[in-house]
Amino acid sequence: MQVKNYPGVALIGLLAGVFLFGCQLQQEKPTSAQIETVGMKAMQQADASAERKLMSWSAQNMPVAQRELALLYQTRPEQRAQSLTLFEQAARGGDVDAAYQLGEMLRVGVVGVAAAPAAAATWYEMAAKQHHARAALMLGMLYKNGDGVARDDAQAAQWLKVASDLGNPHAMFLLSYIYRDGRGVAQDSAQARHLLEEAAEHEYPPAIQELAMTVQLGDALSPKDERRAGYLLKEAAEHRHNNWNRF
């Protein structure tokens, strides 16, 4: 039996192929940047369709989507427990910022979530080991203050150094005191001064003010310099108008 080749049949086959190809494209996983864009839209514009997309992607175990949905739920008191769960799922899936955010929620506690700084340390460490500067800073502060963990000057110095090396000026500032006093590290006045200068270079107001007081009085590392002190004090006052807590 001979099969005739009808043009209409060929056209239908072609259209079916195009349709299937289009479906495959739609089913491809979005990039992290695309998910974050949708997350921003859901957050800033209260876009319900964007939120539904995040929910769908989150259900498919996409860590970035879980983190973005958790950030959205974090703004709603009635959904903060869900936010905590989503952050943990994302962190276990390898999302570094989710691990940091989970640490933040556990450290301070929020409505519906009790403070648990000891548990926060675990997540901070997970993120810090993957070069998250802010997580390393917070972990260093936990050990420095004995907040939820046993006070440990060596651990505090270690993690503050990680954050400092990653460019965090708050960590540089705290580490300068650690080297000045020799807590958890060998005392090193020169290194302490270097870190203070670095933090000031990064426009961290407390460091600028501390450096101003140091040069105003003079010390073993530099002579008294009233002119520079005045300039630094003025600079510190100007920067206080900025939100330096971002560090």
TrEMBL record:
Q: Which domain of life is it from?
A: Bacteria
What sections of the sequence does the record tag as coiled-coil? none
Name the InterPro entries for this protein: Mitotic_Regulator, Sel1-like, TPR-like_helical_dom_sf
Protein name stated in the entry: Sel1 repeat family protein
Instruction: Give the source species.
Output: Duganella vulcania
